[in-house]
Amino acid sequence: MKITKRLIGLILVAATWLLAPGCGGGGGGGTTSPQSISGTVRTPGGISTGRVSARQAFALSAVTASTPVVIYSVGTSGALTQIATGQTTSGAFNITLPSGANYASGLLVVSATFGSTSIRAFVTTASNIDVSPISEAAVQLTADALQQGGKTLGLLTITRADSIQSKVAEALAAETFSSASSISDAVAAAKSAASRNSAVTDAINAAVSGSASVTGVSYAVVTTTDYSSGKLATLALSGGSSTAPTVNSNAAIIHSDAVVTAAGGYVFVINRYGQDNIQVLDPSNGFSLIKQYSVGNGANPLDIDLVSASKAYVSRGNSTSILVVNPLTGDQLGTISLADFADADGIPEMGPIEIVGTKAFVAIQRLDRNTSYWDPLGSSMVAVIDTQTDALIDTDADAAGTQAISLVSQNPQAMYYEPASGKLLVSASGNYSNSAMAGGIDRIDPSTYHVDQLVSKTALNGSPGAFAVASSTKGYVVVSDASFVNSVVRFNPSNGSVGSVVYSAGGYAPSIGLDPYGFLLISDQSYTLPGIAFVDTTTDTLTFSPVSVGLMPFSIAFVTVRQ
């Protein structure tokens, strides 16, 4: 299920949209002669590719090979324009801006690219700019906070940018990056550490609100159940490791079979079979109910993903069509038929949805309802929809008709787009009682629709379920063994290598997710100590044993409320 989803499709992820050339905007200046921007690009161990060659990298060092560097100006709307390019020499760069451009007259961002990974820095001076995982963490944290506040980087002043970047650098002065096996890992570690520093959060709050007195609270939102009734619980997150989060185990009454997601500043509770509706909650107003609307009697909704603030797709397990709705009002805007992808029982059994750019990817499980275990029948699939036209996209021009992507693994349970690699990851459990049915984590190129199996369930020693990705080389997946014992296993999203068990659940673990501070939250339905366990992903160590949320925890989502 989708529990670590970025903000809605209309708000692009900062790590992607800051790299898009040719956008509008621009920060013109008033210089009489061209200005040069210079600095150093540093990475763990001084590497010049996306991975560290040594087993460990203990420090940031200047890159050792020529690396592309681009400078962008940021328009007031947040759109970016590429204004200058260059290369590093022995880790250093010196780029002359076009006539009329000046760092002091408009916000600039400098970006260094390593394959599919980029690191950026705010340009707040003409020289001695440090582009590193530390500066990238500052950019990401700032962009995230501004988005939560309904703003863009185009409204960020140079003074505010300099303050944030300086506070992040100070907070991470002692960071060794000893566990970083890639640039992406180093950024994740830097972002996690910086997000827990009060001076950093004060500087970011000042940038968002114009006053450091404005604060924000991040919540984990959890559906809980005793399988006859359900409640929504919230956990107020602080990024700390000494005090357990404050829990409200009765934030809302929900169905006993419900999952949750958050997008656009709202929380969506998907009440599944037997209720067949969606509750829209406003976290800025005490998680009050805004709207509750039906998606069709007996439809069994499984996921909702927002195309925009006024359009969303709802997958329905007992239907042959995707429902198109206004996500806040529930007004029905149409349907998209997936009947052509059904198995012999006539139902395609659609599941999670993941929107990437202008495409929506919909998992098709194809379960045979005529068998006692609803076995996957033939190939499971991923259908692709053009979100601008609501038309199905043919993923195989050589075959007759409109084709979906055929997965290697069967019975998809969760999907996640990994921006560092540009790939869509699909966790598919196969059949828990039939080891012959293929399961694992598949990898899809959303542009070419090529699919391969990243890691098999054999390599995982069990069937994969929910998963979360912390960086391009660090992911976590819930694995169920033949005895249905659940554990959380680390894996590498880049090459599929399987690491150690980071958490052994006392029962079923239906959901995991990464909070804004770099902690992995795990729903543990242990018979003796049910609750939400916290694992620090920088060290893979347990921070809090399961924190009670009242009833058994099920689905997890995250939302930040600016106050």
What do you see in this structure?
This protein is mainly β and 563 residues long. The protein has a domain at 14-209: Carboxypeptidase-like, regulatory domain (Immunoglobulin-like). It contains 6 helices and 38 strands. Strands 20, 21, 22, 23 and 24 form a 5-stranded antiparallel beta sheet that branches. Strands 33, 34, 35, 36 and 37 form a 5-stranded antiparallel beta sheet that branches. Helix 2 packs across helix 5. It starts with 13 loop residues before the first helix and ends with a strand.
Task: Please provide a brief summary of the model.
This protein is mainly beta. The chain has a domain at 14-209: Immunoglobulin-like.
